[in-house]
Predict the structure.
Amino acid sequence: MAGGKQKLEDDAVVHMQQQMVEKYDNIRKRVHNLQGVIDGLEGQWQGIGRAAFDKKQYEINTSLQNIGNILSEVIEAMTSTRNIKDSKEDEVRASVNKIDVRDGASTVPTSALSSY
């Protein structure tokens, strides 16, 4: 911002953090229900079919864990940013740059465009 200060309202950030946690909890509940369905289907299969269900459930669990880790980092960065809001913009940027979002979707292949 040219010559001005950015104003960060604590209440708005805290509210956003709470919403993020609530949405993640809702996703976890839905994944838990999905795992129940997968377990039911898996019980009807043997051998390769059963192994495929196990593998998919492992991938889902890993992705959810990665999302949770990223969310935790984002919330931590938001809290740090709130705490250093009167600091220099470089410090805020450094705090946000600590977030690594590449681990969120390990089962999704990267785009060929990302290699350019």
